[in-house]
């Protein structure tokens, strides 16, 4: 019988698949019913394979507001591998600041001209119109907790910023963060939508509102 060659899903796998599709439908339904904002956190799902872990809404909001204050009126903000802060900044819909996102995940190209493809392995491979020291503050969250990743991301940060840096990374990176960027740990502790195994902290090189 030819039907014998057709792979059959176990009842457990089938139930799990149905549950997944149901959750997906519910998510889409929620987006529609809430008049979904493409900039809200969660509008693009985390991709763990890209080491993406979104901040909680409260953390993203706190970091976004800090960036706006630090940038000043008419300030320019760059978010390097920190898409949930970028999304919150867009949600704030401020008229007195501008923002762009440097990100490896091309799904964020839906944000148009503000999206800049970025690979930390090529830290200075940036568009010509992205001039050196053209941002009042750079908010960065290197995707990996390694000195190599931090060092390369630091090259990008130092190229972009006029001076101010807001870095989010693991507590274990404190020494390397000071070494490569001259930043110090803040009292504020960032939270993620999902609890991470590694303790995360914020670091700055200016007098911030995060202490």
From TrEMBL:
User: One GO biological process from the UniProt record?
Assistant: methylation
Quote the subcellular location field of this record: Cytoplasm
Q: Which GO terms describe its molecular function?
A: nucleic acid binding; protein-lysine N-methyltransferase activity
A family per Pfam? N6-adenineMlase
Q: Name one GO cellular component term.
A: cytoplasm
* Name of protein: N(6)-adenine-specific DNA methyltransferase 2
InterPro entries (alphabetical): DNA_methylase_N6_adenine_CS, Efm5/EEF1AKMT1, Mlase_EEF1AKMT1/ZCCHC4, SAM-dependent_MTases_sf
Q: What is its main location?
A: cytoplasm
Q: Which reaction does it catalyse?
A: L-lysyl-[protein] + 3 S-adenosyl-L-methionine = N(6),N(6),N(6)-trimethyl-L-lysyl-[protein] + 3 S-adenosyl-L-homocysteine + 3 H(+)
Q: Which UniProt keywords apply?
A: Cytoplasm, Methyltransferase, Transferase
Q: Does the keyword Transferase apply?
A: yes
UniProt keyword Aminoacyl-tRNA synthetase present: no
